[in-house]
């Protein structure tokens, strides 16, 4: 009925809007650290950029920019890992050896615990429920399925997207693990460690970009941070505009 659909759409809008705030704040923080901009200006630039191309290009812009942005993220993360491995005595082998000794390579913790979400039970129940709701009912995902030619194409797109998502998350987690070992093993990482101690873990990658990477590669990493954010922001913007137009403007407007 109309009441249920309207309430559900309003809940989607509220959830998506709150999540978009986090998506804007992350890259804006990186931009503020790297370029020295005020955080407010960085937020405006980040948000306005995603709004502009989403409004001009519609869902086609969302899909194709997401593809390009994913490529930027993958190339940037691999390049950053290569730099980290080159800095550490013994290379990536030493990084992996120390990380394994510290328990950072234990990808799955099978022991169930209600005190922490970091175990298989917590992942399957809590995150599994969230993932199914996002993939199955959220307009940000559903709008992509509806853009496919037929049901089989939509199924292929969904499974391919989930598989690529696993690879992307694995790469970024691996970068974080390498970054923690780099901070401990490289003598020149003192300035980096001071920034992280002062500003928290969210400042780790921006601090690494500022204190270690050459100009071209640092620009690529900043672009990757923006790409990761905007690929989610544009989906949020497009889905919110669709929900507002279909579920509120057209439904309740007195004029066609």
What does this structure look like?
The protein is mostly helical and 256 residues long. 83% of the residues lie in helices and 0% in strands. The protein contains nine helices and no strands. Helix 2 packs across helix 9. It is globular. The two termini are 21 Å apart. The mean pLDDT is 85.
Residues in helices, as a percent range: over 70%
| Overall pLDDT metric | 85
Distance between the termini: 21 Å
Q: Topology as H/E string?
A: HHHHHHHHH
- Enumerate how many helices there are, as a single number: 9
Rg of Cα set: 21 Å
Oligomer: single chain
Strand percentage = under 5%
Largest sheet: none
Shape descriptor? globular
- The helix/strand class is mainly alpha
Sequence stretches where pLDDT stays below 50 over 5 or more residues = none
Q: TL;DR?
A:
The protein is mainly α. The protein has helices at residues 2-35, 39-87, 91-101, 120-137, 139-146, 151-185, 190-199, 204-212, 215-252.
Please outline the helices and strands.
Elements: H1 2-35, H2 39-87, H3 91-101, H4 120-137, H5 139-146, H6 151-185, H7 190-199, H8 204-212, H9 215-252
Helix pairs in contact: 1-2, 1-8, 1-9, 2-3, 2-6, 2-9, 3-6, 4-5, 5-9, 7-8, 8-9
List keywords for this structure.
256 residues; mainly alpha; globular
């Amino acid at each position: 009925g109309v009441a249920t659909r309207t309430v559900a759409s309003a809940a989607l809008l509220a959830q998506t809007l709150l999540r978009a705030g986090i998506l804007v704040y992350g890259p804006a923080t990186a931009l503020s650290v790297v370029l020295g901009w005020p955080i407010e200006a960085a937020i405006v630039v980040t948000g306005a950029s995603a709004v502009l191309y989403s409004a001009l290009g519609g869902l086609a812009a969302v899909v194709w920019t997401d593809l390009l942005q994913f490529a930027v993220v993958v190339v940037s993360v691999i390049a950053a890992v290569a730099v980290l491995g080159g800095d550490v005595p013994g290379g990536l082998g030493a990084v992996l050896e120390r990380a394994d000794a510290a328990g950072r390579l234990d990808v799955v913790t099978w022991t169930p615990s209600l005190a922490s979400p970091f175990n298989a039970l917590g992942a399957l129940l809590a995150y599994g429920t969230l993932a199914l709701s996002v993939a199955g009912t959220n307009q940000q995902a559903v709008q992509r399925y509806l853009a496919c030619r037929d049901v089989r194409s939509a199924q292929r797109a969904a499974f391919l997207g989930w598989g690529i998502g696993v690879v992307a998350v694995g790469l970024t987690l691996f970068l974080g693990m390498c970054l923690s070992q780099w901070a401990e093993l490289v003598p020149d990482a003192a300035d980096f460690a001071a920034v992280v101690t002062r500003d928290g873990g969210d400042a780790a990658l921006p601090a690494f970009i500022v204190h270690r990477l050459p100009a071209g590669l640092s620009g690529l990493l900043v672009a990757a941070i923006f790409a990761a954010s905007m690929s989610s922001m544009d989906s949020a913007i497009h889905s919110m505009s669709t929900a507002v137009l279909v579920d509120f403007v057209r439904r309740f407007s007195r004029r066609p």
